[in-house]
Amino acid sequence: MKRILAIALAIMLVAASLAGCSTGDNGTDGGSDGYEIALITDKGNIDDKSFNQGAWEGVVEFAGANDISHTYIKPEEASDAGYLAAIDLAVQGGAEVVVTPGFLFEVPIYEAQTAYPDVKFILLDGAPHTADYSVFETKDNVASIFYAEEESGFLAGYAAVMDGMTDLGFMGGMAVPAVQAFGYGFLQGAEYAADDLGLADGEVEVTYHYTGNFDENDTNKATASTMYQEGVEVIFAAGGSVGKSVMSAASEADGKVIGVDVDQRYDSETVITSATKGLAASVISVLESIYNDNWETYSGKSTYFNATNDGVGLPTEVLGEEGGDAFDRFESFDLAAYDEIFAELSAGNIELLRQIEVADATGYATADELTEALGLEKVDVTTR
Amino acid sequence: MENYIVEMLNITKEFPGIIANDNITLKLKKGEIHALLGENGAGKSTLMSVLFGLYQSEKGEIRKNGKKVTINNPNDANELGIGMVHQHFKLVEVFTVLENIILGVEPVENGLLELEESKEKIIELSEQYGLKVSPDALIEDISVGMQQRVEILKMLYKDNEILIFDEPTAVLTPQEIIELLQIMKDLAAEGKSILFITHKLNEIMDVADRCTVLRKGKYIGTVDIESTTKEELSRMMVGRDISFDVDKEDREPGDVILSIKNMTVASKTHKNNAVRDVSLDVRAGEIVCIAGIDGNGQSEFVYGLTGLEKLVSGTITLRGKDISKASIRERSASGMSHIPEDRHKHGLVLDYKLEENLILQRYWQPKFQKNHFIKFNEMRDYAEDLIERFDIRSGQGPTTMARSMSGGNQQKAIIAREIDKEHELLVAVQPTRGLDVGAIEYIHSQLVESRDAGKAVLLISLELDEVMNVSDRILVLYEGEIVGELDPEETTTQELGLYMAGAKRDTEKETRHAGE
Amino acid sequence: MQGNNNADKLKFNIKNITSHSGFKSLGAALMAIFLGLVVGFIIMLVARPENAIAGFRFVLLGGMGRLGDVLYFATPILMTGLAVGFAFKMGLFNIGASGQYTMGMFFALYVAFNWDLPGSTHWIVAIFAGFVGGMIWGFIPGIFKALLNVNEVITSIMFNYIGMYLVDMWIQNNGVMYNSSLTRTRYIASGVQIPALGIAGSNVNLGIIIAIIIAVILYIVLEKTTFGYELKATGHNKHAAEYAGMQGKRNIILTMTIAGGMAGIGGAFAILAPSAIAGSSMTYEPINIIAANGFTGIAVALLGNAHPLGTILSATFISYIQRGGTLTSLVGFKPEIIDIVVAVIIYFSAFAMIMNSAIARFIKARLGKDDEKPLQETDSENEENTVEDEEVIKKETEKEAE
Question: pTM of the entire structure?
C-alpha cells in the first residue's frame, strides 16, 4: 500500500511539473481569466473589522451584483515598496481597478498612478503624495476618499449624553488621524448635547484613553473594566479589535459600548450604537461611478464622505428586521432625535474640529490640550 | 538423534563489506544453558538477532522441534516462545513493574485494564523462580538487578520457553551476578532453554552446559563445559593463548604524587555526603586500587578528585601543589589524567571523529592550535601516531566517527589519549568495564606499563579479579569511607569481599593511611 | 508502466544520493523538501482543484523570475537562521531570535535617526549597532542559563515579548523616530540605507552579501577554531566537554551573545533596506507584534541542519517558495491559502529534516527491500560495542516502533 502511495505521489508531482511546462512560458497566463478588481490589504487581515474588511465588503457586494471578477492580495512586506509590489502584482494579474484601504498607501499610490495610467485606483483615507510630503498630486486615475470621522464621533457623543449619561469613556487605538477625529468629535458631541440639555459646567465627565494598539488583549480589557468600575457608563471603543476587549469587559461589568466603523450591534448586546463610516458604501459608490461612466465624480481629487452625502452616521436600520428599531438599546434617545441632529449636521450648521495641536510624540493629547482646543466647558476630560 | 528445541543450521548473514555470520550452526537442547562465546564483533549479537527475527539470514534455516520455521520479526519469535533480555533494558521508567510486564499483552475486561489476575500470575512466577520483585514499584525506583528480573519475568509471563540473555551480567554488581546465575540455573531446571551470550569465561564455567564459540563471524566449535577449561575456551575465542595473570614485577614506590586529606564530597542523589573524610596517598610507581561494591561513593570520589564536583571539605595535593579548588583544566594541566567511568558520557564525544577525540584534553595546547585556529595537520599526524602505537582499530582511521567504533577500541582511544598526555597521576575508573578478554588484557598491561614508567596510578574497580591482579595496594571504599587497606599478596578474595560488604573494617583506620 | 518507470528512476536516485556520504545531508534536505512540496500540493488541490497545477507551478518556478526578491527576503531570515543554528550547535535552543531581531532593529534605527554620521559610514555603524542590540538580547538569556541554570527556551521566549514591548514603547515615546499619525517610524535618510545591488524591481542590497560572508565566517569559527571545537563538543556531549575542562558557562554566554548578534544584524538588515521609492524607506510599526522573521529562522536553521552554509541554502529556498507562493494569487489563491501552503512546505520540510533518518529508513525499507543495506549513519544513542551490534539495535528499535 505504502509503496503504491509513494509512486502515486511521485507521478502526481511529475504530472504537475509537466502540465506546468505545457501551458507555455507566458508568465501571465492567469491574465486572460485574471481579476478585474483587486484589493490590497494593509498590515491587517481581510477580517480586521475595519478598513480592510469594510472596503472588501463593498468590493464583494458590487462585484458580486455585477458579476465582475475580484480578489484581494496581501503584500509580502509592510513597507511602501512592499505595497507597491503588491499593486504591481495585482496589475500583472489583470486588475483594472485597485482598491487600497488606508493611508499607508498614499506613497505607493503616488508611484503607481504614474506607472499604471490605465488602471484606476481607489485610495481610502488618504491622498497620494511623495515620501517627503513635498508633492501632493492626485492623478486622474485616482479617487482619494476621506471620511469625516469627527462627525460620526460627534453623533455618538451627542446621543450618549442626550440619553442621560454623564460619565463617558473613550478608548482609541493608536493616535492616528482617524482615531483622533473620532475622539475629538465624540467630545464635541458630548459638549453640544450638554449645552442643549443645559447641564452645569463639568457635569459630564469623559475619561479619554489611547490603548496604543489595535488589539484584543487582556490589558485593554483590564483598562475597560477599571473604567467601568470607576463609574463610566459607556465606552466609545474606536480602535479596531480594541472593541472586542471593551465589549467583553462591558458584559462582565454590565456596562455599555459604542462601536466604531461598522455597525457592531450584532457583535454584542452591550453595543448601544456605532459611530460608523460608510466604508463599503463609499467603495460601492466609486465603483459604480467607474462602471457607469461617472468616473469624473471622484477622479483626480479628494472626496469627503460625511453627513451631507450620507458617508457617516449612526446606524438607523437593523439587518434582517424590517422596521427594526436601531435605537432600542437607548433609554430615551430615538430615531427622531437622531434625525434632528443629523439634519443639523448635514446642513452644515455645526462646525467641528478634526485636528488639534498635540505636543506629545505619541499623538496623545493631554486633558488641557483637549479642553483648550475643543472649547470644552460642560465636559470635564481626564486622560489616562 | 538428540532432542533439540531450536536448531540454527548453516546461518550466513552478510553486511556490505563484512560477513557477520559465516555458515554458523547452533543447536539448543531443551532445558540446557547454552553459552554463546566470542569477542566483541564475533557475530554473537547478529546471530541472536536472526533468531529473534530482527534480521533475516541469506542462507541457512531455523528449526524448532525439528520443524522448519521462518521468523520475520520479533512477534514471530514471540509466538514460537522465543524471548530476549536485551543488554539495555526495554522498560518504561515511569511505569510500575506490573505495567511493564503486561505491556503488549494487557488483559482487558470491558475495555478496562484488569490487573489483579496478572498480578497474581506475576507473584506466582516470581516465587516459582526466585525472582524477587515488587509488582507495584516504579521501574525508575528499583535497582538495575531488579530491572533485569522484570525483563526475565516479561519473558516468563508470555510463556516463552527459549530465553536469550544478551550479556546480562555486564551491568550487574558481583552479588547480583551470583543471584542471576542461580536464577538461570533454576530456569533451566524448570525446563526452560537458555541461550547465554557472554564473554566472561568464569560465568560460563559456572552455569553453562555447553558452549558454542564464534570468532570473526566464523563457527569455531561447540564444547561440553564439563570436558573443557577456561584456557581452552579462551584459546578458541581469541585464537591464541591469553594470560589471566597480569605480568608485573615488584617495584619500590617513589615519592608521593597524590595526597588526599579528609576529602568529603556531596551526593547528587541524596542529601548525605557520598564520600566522607577520605584520606589517601598514591606514590609514583604504584597502582593503588579503590575497591568496593558499586554505589559506595566511587563515582563521587572520582568527581571530587578530578574536579567535576566541588569538595565539601578536605584538600587534594598533586605533586605538592594544592589543587582542591582548581578547575578541571588546571588539574589536567598539572598532570592528572583521567580515564572516566562512563566512556560514552564523559570520555568521548561520540559524534566527533577519532582524531578530534584524541585531542580532547589537549586541543588548547600550542601544539594543536595557533591563534585559536586548530592545526589540522598536527591533529591528523598525532592521531595516526596514537592509532599505531596503541593499536586502535577503526574503519576509516583518524576520520572514523567515535560512535561507530567498537567499545574496546573506544576505550583504547581514551587510554591512548590519557596515557600519552603529560601526566604524573593516572586515574582509571573501571577501565575494563564491558570489554572482552583481549581488550582487558591489553588495558591491564597498559596500566602496569604506566606504573613501571614511574607514574602514580589510581584504579577504581568493581571487579574482584582486577583488584587482586593489578593493584599494589587495595583500599576498600564502603559507604563513602575507606574501611580497610589490604595487600593483594596477603589477602584473599574472601577477606576482600567481607570488607566490601561492610562486614569487616580496620579499627584504627587512621594509622593505616600511608604518609600520616 | 509509466508509474513503474518513475518509481525505478526514483529508487535509483535515492540510492545514489544516500550512498554518497558527502551528499547525505543535502540528500536528506532534498527529501524533506520533496515531502513538504507534496503536502503543499495536496493542500492546493483541496483548496482550488481547478487551478492547483498552475498554482503549484508558480510555487515551484515562480521564484525564478524574481531572483532579486528571493535574495532580498532571504537576507533577514538567513541571519535569524544563523542565530538559531549557531546556538543549536551548542545544544541551545535559541527561540528568542525574534526579540533579538527586534532589538537589533531598534538599535539600528536609533543610530539611523539620532547619530549624525557621514553617509558612507552611517549605515555600517547602524548595522553594527544592530549587532550590539541583538547581542545584548542574547546575552541575557545566556547569563540566566549559565549562572542560574534557567532553561534558555523559557527566558528567550519571554525576552521576545519583553524586547518587543520595550522597543514599541521606546519608539512611541520618541518623536524623532516616531510618526504618530502614521503609527510607524519616520523614513530613514537614504544615506543610512544599505546600498542596493541595482537589480531592477527588487530592493536586494549589500545585506545579502554581508550575510553570506557572515555565514562563511561562522562556518570557519565552527569548523576551524578551538572555540568551534569546544562549542560543538558541548553540543554533542556536554558531559564530555566538562570532563575535558571546557568552560561551559563562558561558552554558553558567548554562544548566546553571538547568536543574538546574528539576529540583531538581521533586524538591522531588514530595517535599513533601501526602498525602490524615492524618499521612502522601511518603517517599523510598534503594534505589539512579535517579529515573524525570528520564528522563520527556526525553520531555516532546521532545514539547513544548523550548518552555516546549509543555512544560506535553506534561507534562499524558503524565500524562493514564499516568492513563488505570492504569485499564486494570480491564479486566484487567497493570501490565507498561500500562507498555509508556504508554511506547510517550510515547516513540513523542516520537520522532515528532523525526522530524516526515520524517513530515509522508510524509503529504503519500501524501495530497497531486496538489498537490505544496513544504515551507516546513526543518530540513536545506543551504546553497543560493535558496528554490527549497533545495527542490530537500530533495526530493533525500528521494528519495535512499528
Answer: 0.78
